[in-house]
Amino acid sequence: MENTMRIVITGATGGIGFAIAETFAKQGHAVVLADLNENALQQKTTSLIAQGWQADYCVLDVTNQRQIADCAARFPADVLINNAGIQHVARLEDFPPEQWQLLLNVMLTGPAMLTRAMLPLMRERNYGRVINIGSIHALVASPFKSAYVAAKHGLLGFSKVIALENADKNFTINTICPAYVKTPLVEKQIAAQAKEHNLTEQQVIEQIMLAPMPQKAFIDVSEIAETAIFLCQDAAKHITAQTLVLDGGWTAR
C-alpha cells in the first residue's frame, strides 16, 4: 500500500460507505465522499475533518456521465470503491421497466463508467485498486429481486474482464460480497417486515434474514472496511478478479 492515497467512495454517506471512509481516513489516507445528497456529504465530511483527518466530497450521480467525468477530473483516485446501491423488490411482471433499468445503471453501468474514467491515471501511475461492494446476491438469488441480482452478478463478470485488461500494471479489481449487513437501511427493513408478516423483529431476523446463514449473525460494516484495507496492501497485490465472500457460510450449502 502506498503511503498516502486518495480513496474515492461512492454511496459514501450510507452505513457501509461511511465506515469504509472512516477506516481509510484513520490510516492517514485522503478520502473523497461521493454521493447524491450534498447536505449529508457536507455533514459527514465535516465530521471527518473535525477529527483531524483528510476528507473532501463530490456530489455524484453515478448514472450521470458528465458528473462521473467531473469527479474523475477533480479527484483522480488511487483507490476507487464502487459502493452506491439501491433496491426495488417486485415480481418481474410487476417491476416497472424504468426502475429495473435504474438499478442496473446505478450498480453495474455506474461502476463501469466510473472505473473507465479513473483508469487512465491509474495506469499512468502504475497503481490502482478498484473495490466493488457486491452482495451475497452476486452469488445466489432471492425471489422478487431480479434487477438487483442481475446487477450484482454482472459486477463479478465485469471485474474479471477489467482485471485481464489491466494485468500489465500494478492494478487489481475485486468484489466484496457480504450477506446481510446491519445498517440503518436494514434496520428499517426489519421493522417493515415485522409489520408485514405479523412477526416480532427478532423473529424476522432469525426466520427470514439470518435463516440461510449457518453463523446466524449480521456482517458488521467494520468487516467490509477492513477487507477493503487489506485489498490495498502489498500482500494482496496478486489478488485480482476475485470475489471475497463474507457470508457466515451461506454459500457452503
TrEMBL record:
SUPFAM superfamilies: NAD(P)-binding Rossmann-fold domains. It comes from the Bacteria. Transmembrane segments: none annotated. Gene3D superfamilies: NAD(P)-binding Rossmann-like Domain. NCBIfam families: PHB_DH, PRK12429.1. Belongs to the short-chain dehydrogenases/reductases (SDR) family. This is 3-hydroxybutyrate dehydrogenase.
